[in-house]
Amino acid sequence: MNHPATILVVDDEPLNLAVLSRLLHPLYRVLATRSGASAVALAAAEQPDLILLDVKMPGMDGHAVLAALQQQEGTRDIPVIFVSALGDDGDEELGLALGAVDYVVKPVRPAVVLARVRTQLEIKQHRDRLRQQNGSLEQALARQVDELQLAQELMLSGMAELAETRDSETGNHVLRTQHYVDLLARQLRHDPRHAETLDEAQIQRIVKAAPMHDIGKIGIPDHILLKRGPLSADEFGLMRQHTTIGSQAIRHAIDRAQRALGQRFPEDSPPESVRYLEVARLIALHHHEHWDGQGYPAGLAGEAIPLPARLMAVADVYDALTHERVYKPAWSLDSAEAQIFTGAGSQFDPAVVAAFDAVRPEMAQVMQGLSD
Fold it and tell me: Does the keyword Membrane apply (predicted)?
């Protein structure tokens, strides 16, 4: 059962208020008030479908009331019809310019008032219905984006764990490095140079992307990946390709995501799934770059190396040093920490190493809690 529309009538003259109320009451729920200030409060509380608003009132006039309504989120979309004895074209143009939807001149003609009210209520109903439909479409799109992002994360995380297990590392390596990167990023955020870059959203992207740093190992042959002992120059050259293999795989995932999402997002404001995948791509490609430019694959140096990759570089080496690999035994915690400090300014970003120094106890707890 449809409820009658609610109309708020505002006029400082009791007679005018009574005339309009009697005219509208048989068809609509009518609220009435004689002051501008109470009209603003009543509109916020009752959320009427339409307001008939006198222009000339003592204190807060109709123009001021309309301005106040437009400043509040809950009342700015309520249509307002000005009702005034000021009937020249200039007054009407001013009222419409201020945001009124219509203008009725006193003394009011009942048939005109009822027709104008009915028209504006129909327009509002259509607008509300369209807004509701748009909201439903936006919710459906958001669900699709969330589902796509979750599917990508699960797929890529599964591939990352598969890549790790191929060279005898365990899923715990993925979990440990995630925790390490989280600790390092949150500590580095205290550095004024990185506070703006490392907001909560970006830290979440980096942490979610961290498991994919070595996803490219899935493309490295077993005889190289599982070799016990040093790699030859040619073998090491092939091993280095895991950075570009991983980056290309994630690039393909980004392309698929963008095709699936179509043109719904502007280039300068991609959906979260694409932002996260781009962070993953940068980590996979550049986490073996060195601060002094002697790393691979691009030989980037200093801040040319993306910050997520600089964080992963420390996390990955710390985990590799403190755990056994096919080519080496585990190092002691003191030796591993000393190696990280030695690499500051050559292999690692000094600022990230400083963050590492501050969170060493927490990182040691993660290492022990998630041991293989």
Answer: no
